[in-house]
Specification:
heterotetramer, A: Sufe protein. Chain: A, 3-stranded antiparallel sheet, B: Aspartate Aminotransferase, domain 2, 13 helices, binds pyridoxal-5'-phosphate
């Protein structure tokens, strides 16, 4: 059912995204672009002692990518970078078909996207941006 | 019934009736084309041209026949002017490379319309960079029509090539190419028309148009994938050097020197897509059996009804309002992104395309990133329109 | 029985049993490939990559799967290193143009063997002319083997590219390409292997060979026409500019600048031959189910028996006596021309090819104009050999 | 039956071609090459007052093209150029399928080639050379 995917939680996050904006002094950042659909996200992180202290994003995209980014930012703020990466891995695995994976909280709302493989990239875009950002060092 | 001829239309999509509205991307194939393909591989398969035996003789005769049939269909003066390619994109690359690299120089101008598909844009941009020519935009109006006055003003003696799409795949505009060709010829420019979207809907007469080069895609005119054609005026093709080289396009080969075959072989190295070219004839036969004027009117009518009905939904508008338009509707919703709309339509069995439709410069012109596009074919009916409208309404309910 | 898998073999040719011995030109297709083709057009047809709907999603998945299967079959490190083309000829043109035009300059040398098919000869000759490089022959021996000593002596630091056929389509020689590649790499040259004739008979491992570029033809390995592939090492392909341009191979397009997609899309503009690529997977599956070592031995054995038997006929000799040879026999009769022999064989149901086999430089090497060539495939049997021998004997009786 | 095509007449002409050689002072000549099979023919004519007084050819080719050339030379020697061209036209029409055409004498031996369309060019090669030659003027 398409309503499982476009449920209130997703629509809400898409309409009122959390952590939208930019950081004054990010330690890490990255830009991701999906040329196939035009989704774009710029992610900024403030990492201190291995912990993601603050996070913000800007960009344009579909409801799925916007909601996915918003949800991600709320979930990883306060986590260590290792925890965040591990969560992203679990999410990517689950969304590409590994049903054995534990309940992932708000991320579960995005799991029905697996019926629409051409949209999976929309949901994983912010997680790719996260990996990119953690590999980067900004001034 | 026409739809009975297209078995794929009977197969449910995500449990719903399929409303196939992605004809601008590729058309479905009539049973005759499918049968001809299987028949070729089952009973006629052989390499063409140089076989010493019966099977090859038969395959060669059928292969040559498609060329003649296509040449007649577009009213080329000779079948030698029809070069087989792997698709419309390759046809244009052939011209941009073989003609462009040898006829353009520093200071020359290539005019390219703002509504070109990347296939009739990027090759010209590449050759302009290589040769120091400049690529200049033919602007379009807010309605999505060529700005003919601006075009007239751009036509100076420095213009060597005009690249223009016959029917826009994004917004359906049917361009006045006959007039535009005549205007270009007045200043001595050649014209490359991208006919990818035209052949399934319009009767094209290359001699009447006076066009220099005309690119065709097989899979968009009810034929197989992997086949296309380039029509070119004989004197132009004769003067052009080969594009790709290899077997079958040569006269003699030695370490000292290679000489090339005559048209059309000169431009067709290697084993052609025989299993695609031969069934392509069945697609042309299928089109020959239709009243294309009626078909085009019916497709345009369905598109108009769709447009009218969805524009009544709050926050929906259609991009591209040209007076002369094919059955293509490019939809924007201010309450959702093209991709979300596309996915909800998909869940309702409605097959549409979302994105920039390989027309980024056009998207930019309208300050948008993507649209949700419905494009009609010969088998579409009012039922498809209704299904699409209902699906858009559902999306509106979901997004509130 | 294997032949039952190939329905075309049951159809009489000129009223006689068909002995299909033109496999080097194109192979026949197993029923599974024919079925997959019809099935695609009947139930799966959609454009790939950018469709927002179920049919396109399914077609895209199948399309991508062929790339992965082919990459695994030739043991490429990544499927990104496999570029789909319309055939072997285009694969080589792609390299000659995109790599050659950007890596060759005045004074550089391209080594090309004397036994190359025009497909791996003319493109290099063209690029050598354009860039002021020189094209130098790797000689072959009277037996039709690469002269390895001469090759070694030609390998100087000025050599930038070596173009060599894996299996000769004219005389069947299987070249020691692994060794030749290693030798070329010692002087820093890249190697382009023409694998058109190899895939149906040999297990190819591109990593083990260490080859830089390897060109593949689908229709010569029991797959559809109009499909081919180029394997290239990732670092080489990454560094190369696009070849043809258009839709699907771009990242962003504007009048100011165009940026390109990553591998493999960068080299695949336009709608691919989806209806060919998807069934190609069935051909690979068919080959995966065979013991290729046994198949190759059986084909070579049939060729040897044919050779032995016809050489007992007065005035007949076989050109090409390499120690390591595939199932290809190139026949000369001093009492008749290749074409007359071919026609008489045809009248007896024996399908062979006559002419220079797109190898004019090789013909010249042996001071001949044409041969009558029998080439074996997986379904051939001793019955085909007997039929061919009897037909040659009949020709001998006619010409006295 | 293949024996209808490769009959004694053809084999004889192929083995012992008539008018093989060259002329001392041709008025017209032409070279024809069929790259598909490597057949080559060089034709020389001596035309006086519109009549083909002498003719000779050199070249290499298959039995069909050699025999066709030999037969042609014997038939058109002494004919006017117009008669020769007309005969060539009849022959080309007959060999590509027009069965209504009158008996063409020795040329009939070549007619069975029509079952083998890929060989038709071999039989018409000398006639193309003739047309070329008549369009030429040599010194
Ligand atoms: C050795 C060789 N190379 C290249 C080719 C060209 O392959 P294709 O015609 O599929 O492009 C062929 C086939 O004719 C061949 O035998
Ligand atoms: C207007 C237009 N031009 C060119 C093309 C490219 O055609 P093909 O993908 O068949 O090469 C298309 C199709 O995508 C098109 O719609």
């Amino acid at each position: 059912m398409i309503e499982d995917l476009y449920q209130e939680l997703i629509i809400d996050h898409a309409r009122f995204p959390q952590n939208r904006g930019s950081l004054a002094a990010p330690s890490h950042s990255a830009h991701q672009y999906n040329p196939l659909c035009g989704d774009e996200v710029t992610l900024q992180l403030l990492v201190e002692n291995g912990v993601i202290q603050d996070i913000a994003f800007e960009g344009q995209g579909c409801a799925i990518s916007t909601a996915a980014t918003s949800i991600m930012t709320t979930l990883i703020k306060g986590k260590t970078t290792e925890e965040a990466k591990a969560l992203g891995q679990l999410f990517r695995d689950k969304i590409t078909g590994n049903a054995e994976i534990e309940d992932l909280g708000e991320l579960e709302a995005l799991v029905p996207i697996k019926e629409y493989p051409m949209r999976v990239k929309c949901a994983t875009l912010p997680w790719h941006a996260l990996l990119d950002a953690l590999r980067s060092e900004t001034t | 019934m026409l739809t009975a001829n297209f078995p794929i239309l009977e197969i449910p999509s995500r449990g719903k009736r399929l409303a196939y509205l992605d004809n601008a991307a590729t058309t479905q194939k009539p049973q005759s084309v499918i049968d001809a393909t299987a028949h070729y591989y089952r009973e006629q398969n052989a390499n063409v041209h140089r076989g010493a035996y019966w099977l090859s003789q038969e395959a060669t005769a059928l292969f040559d026949q498609t060329r003649v049939q296509l040449a007649n269909w577009i009213n080329a003066e000779s079948s030698d002017e029809v070069i087989f390619t792997k698709g419309c994109t390759e046809s244009i690359n052939l011209v941009a490379h073989s003609w462009g690299m040898n006829n353009l120089s520093q200071g020359d101008v290539i005019l390219v319309s703002r509504m070109e598909h990347h296939a009739n844009f990027v090759p010209w941009q590449q050759v302009s960079i290589a040769k120091g020519a400049s690529i200049v935009e033919i602007p379009i109006t807010d309605l999505g029509e060529i700005d003919l006055e601006a075009y007239q003003n751009l036509l100076t003696g420095r213009v060597k090539m005009v690249a223009i799409v016959h029917v826009s795949n994004s917004i359906g505009t049917i361009n006045p190419i006959k007039k535009m060709i005549a205007m270009a010829h007045k200043v001595g420019a050649k014209v490359m028309v991208d006919g990818a979207q035209a052949l399934a809907h319009l009767k094209v007469d290359v001699q009447d148009l006076g066009v220099d080069f005309y690119a065709i895609s097989g899979h968009k005119m009810y034929g197989p994938t992997g086949v296309g054609a380039l029509y070119g005026k004989r004197e132009l093709l004769d003067a052009m050097p080969p594009y790709q080289t290899g077997g079958s396009m040569i006269r003699t080969v030695s370490f000292e020197e290679t000489t090339f075959a005559a048209l059309p072989d000169k431009f067709e190295p290697g084993t052609p897509n025989i299993g695609g070219i031969i069934p392509w004839a069945s697609a042309i036969t299928f089109l020959e059996g239709q009243n294309l004027l009626e078909v085009a009117a019916q497709e345009a009518n369905l598109a108009q009804v769709l447009e009218k009905q969805i524009e009544q939904i709050n926050g929906i508008r259609v991009v591209g309002k040209a007076a002369h338009r094919a059955g293509i509707v490019s939809i924007l919703a201010d309450w959702t992104h093209a991709h979300d709309l596309g996915t909800i339509l998909d869940s309702e069995g409605v097959a549409v395309r979302t994105g920039h439709h390989c027309c980024m410069p056009l998207m930019k012109r309208f300050n948008i990133v993507a649209t949700t596009r419905a494009s009609f074919g010969i088998y579409n009916t009012m039922e498809d329109v209704d299904q699409c409208v209902a699906a858009v309404q559902k999306a509106k309910r979901i997004f509130g």
